Amino acid sequence: MSSSSGVRLLTVTTRVSGRRAPLLRVSPGVNLAQRRRLHLAPPFLLDDYTPRYQLLTEVDVAKKRSLAYAHLRNCNLCPRLCGVNRYETTGMCLIGENVKVNVIAPHFGEVVIQFHDSDTDGQVSASEPCIQGHNGSGSVFFSGCNLRCTFCQNHDIAHQRNGFDLTPEELGEWYLKLQHVGNVHNINLVTPEHVVPQVVLSILHARTLGLEVPIVYNTSAFDSLASLELLDGLVDIYMPDFKVWTQKASRRLLKADDYAAAARESVRAMHAQVGDLCFTADGIAKKGLLVRHLVMPGQEDEAREIVRFIAENVSRDTFVNVMEQYRPDAHVGKPTRRRAKRKDDGAEEAEKDARGDVRYAEINRAVTTDEVTAVRKAAEAVGLWRFCDPPGHDGFAI
Ligand code: SF4
After folding, report:
1. How far apart are CA 325 and CA 368, in angstroms?
2. Nearest C-alpha to atom 3 of ligand 1 is from which residue?
3. Which keywords, in A-to-Z order, does the entry hold (predicted)?
């Protein structure tokens, strides 16, 4: 007896009772993804977890410290390759030897009121419950960034030098306060690509003070292999946001020559370090890769290439958050600057802006449900199956 889903109902004699009892068996033609529905089961379930930074030897620690200081003196740590001495000046990210921090607090997810085209009811969406858990994620929002996304959803923090200065040691002490006072599940470093040496020093300092929770590296994926090598052994969860695929979109929307080339290399290196996302039995993620993709208006083709890359070149077991909370922000929707040609956009794009009344008119709206669904289906079609879905029960979305 078989059903259209490929699940066959069989009757076999059980050894224990000797009675005939029905069992479910998956027929050979069934897609592997259809069979694997359990996130919280081996191999993605851990008995226990010790953060990677606690396993470093003193020799590893000394090497990382000296490498971090060397990078600060000649910073080529991100794809911008500024080569500046950050004790004396700043590069493209505008941040020197100390970090500038905008917010340090337990974070319970992005709660966003979203409006689709003709649907003004709005909806609330939260981000990753397996990261935030009951007590929140100990989030540190760094000021500054090495990208210049025209649509930046955090532009008041990332595009402006807005916040308070902390030495790496002071930053590490804040991790301890988040752990002891906030009782957070992890330390979540938001937009840290341009402050990797300082982050490395802060984690090493916090380790000596008694930090015990995992480190989440919450990045735009515009990282370099050198910075990821420096972070190896210190970060437990890599959470890259893979934004766009084509060079054209990279130049126009992110103001970077080839963002996707850096992101491809980085995401592969992250996965090589920590593998697929794993949880402990309380439903909290402890180690692995979690890829985010913010769906953008009319950019489904970019997303299709991104999810195909993840499935074919990283892992089909990658945990993916298809995010729908895009809203026009930063430079999007601002009055057009009527210049004939902008060097970084090219004539075609400048022409596009000049035709409209506002800048980046093509992304000057929220995404539609159809667009989000198309990206999700594209991800499923290439074999991805672990998604950050809203919980269909009272527990976490795992
Ligand atoms: S981290 Fe900052 S200074 Fe270093 S290469 Fe990147 S943008 Fe330049």
Report:
1. 10
2. 91
3. Iron, Iron-sulfur, Metal-binding, S-adenosyl-L-methionine
Q: Strand, coil or helix: what is 322?
A: strand
CA angle 191, 194, 200 (to 5 degrees): 90
Q: Is 152 annotated as a binding residue?
A: yes
DSSP H/E element including 300: helix 300-309
What domains appear along the chain, each with residue ranges and CATH number?
1-30 (no CATH), 38-327+366-387 (3.20.20.70)
**pTM of the complete model:** 0.84
Q: Between helices 300-309 and 369-381, what is the axis angle to 10°?
A: 20
List the residue whose alpha carbon is closest to atom 4 of ligand 1: 75
Is residue 24 within 8 A of residue 267, CB to CB? The reply is no
- Give the pLDDT confidence score for residue 192 in this predicted structure: 97
pLDDT in tens, 270-303: 999 999 999 999 999 999 999 999 999 999 999 9
Q: Whose CA is nearest to atom 6 of ligand 1?
A: 78
Paired residues of 103 in beta bridges: 141
145 is in an annotated binding site: yes
Sequential DSSP letters for 79-145: TT---B-TTT---TT---SSEEEEEEEEE----EEE--SS-TT-EEE---HHHHTTT-EEEEEES--
Half-sphere exposure of 344 (CA within 13 A, CB side): 13
Given a cut of 90, is residue 332 above it in pLDDT?
Answer: yes
Q: Residue 19 has what pLDDT? A: 36
Binding-site residues, ligand 1, Cβ < 6 A = 75-78, 80-82, 84, 91-93, 146, 194
Instruction: Give the distance (Å) from ligand 1 centre to CA of residue 286.
Output: 29
Contact 107, 188 (CB under 8 A): yes
> What string of DSSP letters covers 192-261?
-GGGHHHHHHHHHHHHHHT--S-EEEEE-S---HHHHHHHTTT-SEEEEB----SHHHIIIII--S-HHH
Q: How far apart are CA 265 and CA 228, in angstroms?
A: 10
**Does the annotation list 149 as a binding residue?**
yes
